[in-house]
Amino acid sequence: MNEPSKRPDAGKPREAIDVSDFVYAATGARVRRLTMPDGAHWFPAVDVCRQLGHTNSRQALADHVPEGHREILETVTGAYGLSVPAGREWRRDLNVISLRGLVLLVNACTKPACAPFKQWVAEVIETVQREGSYSLEQAEVQPAGPGAAVAYAMPEQVADAIVRLEAHNLQVDQELAVAQRESLALQRESLAAQRAVLAAQEAIAEAMGRIADRLDVLAPGRPVPGGPSGVRPTTESVLADWRQRLSVTEDVWTVAVVIAPVLVEKGEFREPLEAIAARTGLSVRRVNECLRLLRKHACIRSRGGAADGAPVYVLHQP
């Protein structure tokens, strides 16, 4: 990432190799950078260390980068009268390194991908020691006008590293695309399987409901598969069970005596509250409270309402 300079770049030294290509060949990644008005480049140390495999960035800086080539972001920008770039990733206390510091970290890296760049650095040093200088070859296409920058050919090692990295990244992108397609296909298959399971569960629930409805209309005393005693309850057994499980007032018991025979004989009770009130002599409100108490103690359970609005109750099966 490049940050635009806030000062004119008049007098800025010309770069023989584009810094983005240079850093990409060295680290294998497009690393964020800040370019100062005088052409100096600074890079977030954490970005460089992450790409090079240095797990402890502070220790890596202390071991391999001299103090003159590692700084705090606020100190670097303040020296040029610039403010810290906006954004959460650009903190005032962010450790940054110069281009030389970056090269020093690359030289300390053991990743095989860094080997071509380090070999080129060694070649430059050897050439300078032997010949006193190292020059990049000028490109065949020269600048058209006077005063224009001279074009240089990128060193073979740097160019090869860039080509190799780009090819590797392209392959990784292709593999990632294939993996994403396979993952999407698996997700679709999983979704289809979940829908099939859900449909099967709904079918089973519907079948069990039909079985329960048929069992509810069996004659008293007929064997009931799956029942706790194997025999359909009678009015007497139901009332006896209710009497043992709860202590009720006389009006609650009056409602219980009215609905129990119907529940046993028909499998359900569906009458308006007014009809129960008329048969028991209780108020509609009190009838509703009695039914609520019977539901609370798991004597009966609600099964919605009838077409005429009357509540429907069935025996609670443990």
TrEMBL record:
Residues 16-132 form the Bro-N domain. PROSITE patterns: BRO_N. One of its GO terms (molecular function) is DNA binding. InterPro entries: BRO_N_domain. The keyword Transport does not apply. Keywords: DNA-binding. This is DNA-binding protein.
